[in-house]
Prior knowledge:
Helices cover about 25% and strands about 25% of the residues. The chain has helices at about 5-15, 40-45, 150-155, 165, 180-190, 200-225; strands spanning about 25-30, 35, 50-55, 60-65, 70-75, 80-85, 95-100, 105-110, 115-120, 255-260, 265. The chain has two domains: about 5-140, MutM-like, N-terminal (N-terminal domain of MutM-like DNA repair proteins), CATH 3.20.190; about 150-265, Helicase, Ruva Protein, domain 3 (Orthogonal Bundle), CATH 1.10.8. The strands form three sheets. It has a five-stranded mixed sheet with strand order 2-9-5-4-3, with helices on one face.
Amino acid sequence: MPEAPDLEVIKDYLNAELKDVSVASCLVLRPTVVRSLTGEMASDLPGRWFLDAKRWGKFLTLRFSGGRSLVINPMLTGALQHCQESERVLKKTSVVLTLNTGMDLRYLDDRQMGKVYFIDNGEDGGDAQDDQVPQYTELGPDVLSGISIEEFQQRLKKYNGEIKGVLTRGAFISGIGNAYSDEILFAAGISPFKKCRALKPEELQALHAQCRQVLEEATEVLRERMGGVIHKKFRDFLKVHNKGGQPCPRCGGNITQLNANQRITSYCRHCQPGLLIRN
């Protein structure tokens, strides 16, 4: 699942590479991922110029001239590919935007879980997706937006579940998924199974700081690693996520990994002490 660091790098890449580029044609190969909320995307989008890309949480918005936008919610398997028009179209390709540069911008989604919303932002190109796109209105502050410790603590009071599950809820703070929740909790030294209301003041401080620090550091690593291969997922540099059985980079003990409900949880029992309790 693309999370804030992945999408932040992709956003910056698109803003640099697609400046003054227009859409020559639009082909929808898998209609199940497209939600056209204004006209037909395949006929309406060609001829429009790319304005910019924006990110909020795990949503990416591509704005075009004439008040049109693509709001992408990649969910678990969605990705964007920027490649030569002549490059082989992968089976998981869902939408193809052929650009006036001879390049394609393609939306890939192997399991078709993500969604591409084609919306009307109005001629002024404003941010109208918040009342048109499902789940967008429910998003909390973006994890990289500079949320204060006071607001962080206040928002957390609404929840009483295990902290890992709360971190991945976009209504609390948006942009954190399964992989980076593991990394944040490891950096903060907190068990993923600890109840929110059991967190001590010093743990809350550490959690608040690491939410931003871990993701900012990951963004810089991805900026160097990703380059133009924006459809690839780079996670090998992470410290604990999906590294069950490997040595903990802090204490040297084995990393524990659990797999439940199609979600991996990786942590160090020594560095993140706590009991695994399920209610």
